[in-house]
Model the fold of this input.
Amino acid sequence: MTATDFIVARDDFETCKTITTELPATDTLPQDALLVQVDRFAFSANNITYAVLGGEMKYWQLFPAPHGFGNIPVWGFGEVIASKHPNVPVGERLFGYFPMATHLVIEATDVSKRTLRDGAMHRQRVAPVYNAYGRVSGDPAYTGRQGDYQALLRPLFMLSFLVDDFLAENDDFGARRVLLSSASSKTAFGLAHLLHARGRKVIGLTSSGNTGFVGSLGCYNEVVTYDRVTSLPSDAPVAFVDMAGNSALRAALHRHFGDQMKCSVRVGLTHRATEPEEGELPGARPRWFFAPDQIRKRANEWGPGGIEQRFGSAWSGFAPLLERCLSVVESRGPEAVRQVYLDTLKGRIPPEQGHMLSLLG
Ligand SMILES: NC(=O)c1ccc[n+]([C@@H]2O[C@H](COP(=O)([O-])OP(=O)(O)OC[C@H]3O[C@@H](n4cnc5c(N)ncnc54)[C@H](OP(=O)(O)O)[C@@H]3O)[C@@H](O)[C@H]2O)c1
Done:
């Protein structure tokens, strides 16, 4: 039996290919190892950002690829097809971080009723969340369309939830208006939903082709295209959460709002704009939001299960929006995966689409 991996050149993301390798026979798997067939996974701009930060954030180390290439991590589902772990049966369904591939060998450790962890040495230099797998067999929240929503949105909505929490605990730094760039992205509209629910005025910044979608979501009070951001009134405090990572846009906003820019949080890099960083900007200093710090802080303050319980209730309020605004598009096989990958890389995916992929034919 063979495995297929989809890999990209680390220094030129448009160069991509599939490679085939031999799968290990069950009797050659190490003690406690699982051979998992990767059934389906979500793909969005977030995965492109994993590639952009592959070296810096060590994402390339998770799923080794031939020299000069990387395998982009994705969130999705796999099924255990061979097991050397006494407590994990063949047929078990897992949700977590997978390579763009048909198979993955996991060195199962810390196996509990609901989770397990990959203890492989080469995976230990990233945040723990990337090595944890949910054991989701038979769980209706991870089945069918609900499962697709989990893969497409859950990891992104966790970030939306944490940024909203960070802003709320700081009284939004005195701002009552919050600007979100790449407002059409899933991470942004998750955050917009939470901000809107607690009465903030949410202003979505987006490209002209995406204004209709952003306006239709119902969680943005106002939608402004990138070329019109300086038409916004600048006489009251604002906070800015940056999903686009576009340095020219960031500089324009800081200059326009000046001291009224009370908070400027960097979250994403959808635009992958490469202009050199501007020097000192007026207003609050832009800073990266590091989710694991907020998780650690809240885990201490809220105690065991505190984050999960609050996140669960936020998710229940958010999930119905997905039925209305997101259409899941499924593609199977290497050529289809390549096409969706390149379309995502080039920003050609309409925001109302959520792509679920599989390299299995
Ligand atoms: N720091 C963290 O822990 C964390 C966690 C979750 C997500 N994020 C980041 O949040 C960002 C959004 O991710 P997502 O998966 O939610 O995105 P998504 O839903 O795939 O967003 C698609 C939108 O991004 C913009 N875009 C995408 N590709 C583009 C391109 N090549 N050129 C120009 N614009 C492009 C467009 O929005 P507009 O037209 O509206 O600009 C597009 O509608 C990513 O950078 C992701 O890494 C960070």
Observations:
- The chain has two domains: 2-138+326-358, 156-294.
- Residues 156-294 form a domain with the Rossmann fold fold (CATH 3.40.50.720).
- The chain has a mean pLDDT of 96.
- The chain has eight helices and 17 strands.
